[in-house]
């Protein structure tokens, strides 16, 4: 399959990539090139040799660029092997929900085996509930600094109040807190000093209206994009 025949006229560089100072300019450029080569299946199959020839650099340099993007979780790499365990294809997936494809980790969420997605969903739901229970019980497993963030955002509720809240509102609260904790444990944790309660709720509602394949990841990336833009 010829990479050049699959290229799109446009490429995409979301704010999370554009303003990430950990990335070299060339790494941001190759990220955009990957988006332009991402096919209808949601992944790019171009080789390091192709990118090396395109930009006049060594294959090793390209490998370092893509490895760094993967380390920072902007892309995910899947290696397809034959029966002899030899690599026959590499697939590069874009891990960013504002991207047009609306494909976030399609190798999981677009799986032809629905049972696998159900297992993933069940694990996430369990993690969400566990985290929420730790928080409402003031568990020392949750960092005090994170409690202070929730307190500032007025997301700390007593069990009595939670018992009279509508179930969908409690679920929204659980998922917002889960994503905030995910961001807290990421390289974007400095953004949490900027987030506002009203904005977080509005972004969650908007995320639901878009009906993405992966609501939580879409919501997370929307928060990061909004507050990354605000900080520039």
Could you explain how this protein is built, in words?
It is built from 11 helices and 2 strands; from the N terminus they run H-H-H-H-E-E-H-H-H-H-H-H-H. By secondary structure, the chain is mostly helical. A two-stranded antiparallel sheet has the order 1-2.
Secondary structure: elements and pairs:
Elements (H helix, E strand, L loop, with lengths): L14 H4 L6 H13 L10 H8 L3 H13 L3 E7 L5 E8 L11 H4 L4 H23 L7 H9 L6 H6 L2 H18 L12 H14 L4 H16 L2
Helix pairs in contact: 2-4, 3-4, 6-9, 9-11, 10-11
Structural class category: mainly alpha
Q: Helix fraction? A: 55-70%
- Poorly predicted regions: 1-5, 97-120
Number of helices: 11
Task: Characterize the main sheet.
Answer: 2 strands, antiparallel
Q: In angstroms, what is the radius of gyration?
A: 20 Å
Name its key features:
232 residues, mainly alpha, two-stranded antiparallel ribbon, 2 strands
Brief summary:
By secondary structure, this protein is mainly alpha-helical.
């Amino acid at each position: 399959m010829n990479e050049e025949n699959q290229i799109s006229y446009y490429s995409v560089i979301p704010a999370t990539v554009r303003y990430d100072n950990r990335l070299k300019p060339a790494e941001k450029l190759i990220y955009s090139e990957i988006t332009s080569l991402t096919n209808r299946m949601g992944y790019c199959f171009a080789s390091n040799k192709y990118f090396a020839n395109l930009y006049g650099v060594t294959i090793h340099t390209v490998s370092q660029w893509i490895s760094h993007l993967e380390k920072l979780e902007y892309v995910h790499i899947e290696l397809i092997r034959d029966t002899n365990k030899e690599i026959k294809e590499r697939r590069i997936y874009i891990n960013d929900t504002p991207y047009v494809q609306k494909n976030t980790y399609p190798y999981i969420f677009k799986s032809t085996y629905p049972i696998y997605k159900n297992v993933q969903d069940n694990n996430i739901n369990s993690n969400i509930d566990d985290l929420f229970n730790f928080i409402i019980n003031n568990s020392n497993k949750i960092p005090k600094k994170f409690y202070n963030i929730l307190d500032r955002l007025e997301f700390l509720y007593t069990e009595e109040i939670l018992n009279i809240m509508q179930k969908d509102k409690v679920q929204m609260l659980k998922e917002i807190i889960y994503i905030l904790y995910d961001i807290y444990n990421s390289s974007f944790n400095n953004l949490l000093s900027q987030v506002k309660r009203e904005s977080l709720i509005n972004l969650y509602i908007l995320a639901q209206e878009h009906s993405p394949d992966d609501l939580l990841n879409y919501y997370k990336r929307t928060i990061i994009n909004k507050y990354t833009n605000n900080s520039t």
